[in-house]
Design a protein that fits this description.
Blueprint: H1 2-43, H2 47-123, H3 128-157, E1 167-170, H4 171-185, E2 191-196, E3 202-205, H5 207-224, E4 231-236, E5 243-247, H6 280-290, E6 294-299, E7 305-310
Helix pairs in contact: 1-2, 2-3, 4-5, 5-6
């Protein structure tokens, strides 16, 4: 952070120096033209010489002024562009630094809980329910660790040119199977599925990527939903453009944050104490866009957030 501030300060100092040098050279050229005018007219102050010297002086001033204005505009544009690039790079570096810290925390926590559960099982001769509880803790830690590693790997995979493996799949079966699998892995989750329209609609796309997309949306909804408050999944295939809604009744997302939540590593400021890397919703956004679909966020009636995916018309 200090290095970035020093670099910006040095950049401003150099930019100021170059601008002052430009002003000095403009002043020097105009002064030289004025001196030449005075010299030419001092020895021969005839009207013809005076007029010719005046025209030459005016041409010199106009040339210097025009070139100075053009150079100044280009110089200011270049400075502005470089400054924006520097700020963008610093912003990305800050987000990536926060991401590394978040990932470190996200990976250390399940590793620590899993190790503690294994050490407890090894140290104590647990039986029955106590042993099962420790095994559940270890299993939960490994699953959480697996999800975080999967997010990182998939984020890297999406940068490859052949990231998607497209094939037709039944969208209704896909949603039901994905929610069923999610609830099996998260038995404490409360999710209701509503199907509107006919089943059997085929979607052309990468089913595994869509599965990752839906799982991340479900995890996000469960994480922010109050206890015992169900997350609603509504699949509507009754129109030419099918859509999928994931509805929670949590704190919601402020309007000014709704586009930012899809940026890589971004976390809503109020959620700093909530576990997460800021990568899940970015993966969702990338997967949706790569399939030519759209996603947007709106408020849930009564409080909460609703994520809606709109697929292209069939």
């Amino acid at each position: 952070m200090k290095g970035g501030r020093r670099a910006r300060a040095l950049f401003l100092v150099l930019a100021t120096y170059v601008f002052l040098q430009l002003a000095w050279w403009v002043n020097l050229l105009i002064s030289s033209a004025a001196t030449l005018f005075e010299t030419r007219t001092a020895f021969n102050p005839s009207p013809d010489v005076l007029e010719a010297a005046l025209q030459d002086w005016e041409k010199t001033v106009l040339m210097v002024a025009a070139e100075g204005v053009i150079f100044s505009l280009l110089f200011m544009f270049g400075l502005s562009w470089i400054w924006r690039v520097m700020r963008a790079d610093n912003y990305i570096l800050a987000r990536e630094r926060n991401f590394v810290m978040a990932v470190t925390h996200e990976l250390k926590t399940p590793i620590a809980s899993t190790r503690l559960a294994i050490d407890t099982l090894k140290r104590l001769d647990l039986k029955g329910a106590d042993r099962d509880d420790m095994l559940d803790v270890a299993r939960s830690g490994t699953l959480r660790l697996e999800r975080r590693v999967e997010d990182i790997l998939q984020a890297t995979r999406l940068n490859l040119p052949d990231a998607l493996v497209r094939s037709p799949f039944d969208i209704t079966e896909f949603v039901e199977d994905t929610v069923s699998t999610f609830m099996h892995l998260h038995p404490e989750a409360s999710i209701t599925v509503t199907l509107v329209g006919d089943s059997g609609l085929l979607l052309q796309g990468d089913e595994e990527m869509w599965r990752l997309c839906l799982i991340n949306l479900l995890e996000n909804a469960i994480k922010y939903s109050p206890q015992h408050s169900p997350v609603e999944v509504i699949l509507d295939t009754s129109t030419s453009k099918p859509n999928l809604s994931i509805i929670d009744h949590g704190p919601g997302i402020p309007p000014e944050e709704r586009k930012k939540v899809f940026e890589a590593f971004y976390r809503v400021p109020r959620d700093k104490d909530v576990e997460g890397t800021g990568l899940g919703l970015h993966l969702v956004y990338r997967i949706v866009k790569m399939h030519g679909a759209e996603i947007h966020v709106m408020s849930t009636a009564g409080g909460g957030a609703t994520f809606v995916i709109d697929w292209p018309a069939n």
